[in-house]
Amino acid sequence: MDPDNQKKESVHGILAHSYTVYFVFLIIGILLDLIFPIRLIPNQISGAIGLTLIVIGPLLILWAQRTSLAIRNKMEKLTRDDFKHGPYSITRHPTYLGVIFMVLGFGFLVNSIVIIAASIIAALFTKFYYIKREELLLEKNYGDDYIEYKKNTSSWL
């Protein structure tokens, strides 16, 4: 394929595709749960864990998106310190983490070991495929500042 005709890969493009992985694995988990309804956790405990994760997930995503928007509006070249605001001071991937919390939360809420397992598989696939691509792109775009941030900040938690 001609490089001039290829779409330029962006972090947002990678994010959009990775969310599809969670959706597909969630649907697969739901369908498999209909066939293999495995319940190992008492409903009250499972429900409480699920509800907590479902509440934390979107809040983390919202916090990450607001922080990203504030940083992007700066309009200058990003520096090492810009990567350390909001949830990005705790984890390099708060949006992914929020999505994981929501999907896992749903698995716990409906007390489905199969959906929980599918969520974990989706998270691992995302980590080893999409996050790897995203971080290479960020290193290319922001150089040593991002590499230094990466050394000092956890990927997930």
TrEMBL record:
The family database entries (InterPro entries) matched by this protein are listed as: Metal_cation-efflux_comp, Phopholipid_MeTrfase
Tell me what this protein is called: Isoprenylcysteine carboxyl methyltransferase
Give GO MF terms, alphabetically: methyltransferase activity
Origin species, per record, is Candidatus Nomurabacteria bacterium GW2011_GWB1_37_5
Gene3D superfamilies reported for this sequence: 1.20.120.1630
List the GO biological process terms.
Answer: methylation
Compartments reported by the entry: Endomembrane system
Q: Looking at the record's lineage, which domain of life comes first? A: Bacteria
Task: Report how it sits in the membrane.
Answer: Multi-pass membrane protein
Q: Where mainly located?
A: membrane
Q: Which residues cross the membrane?
A: 20-38, 45-64, 96-125
Q: Which UniProt keywords apply?
A: Membrane, Methyltransferase, Transferase, Transmembrane, Transmembrane helix
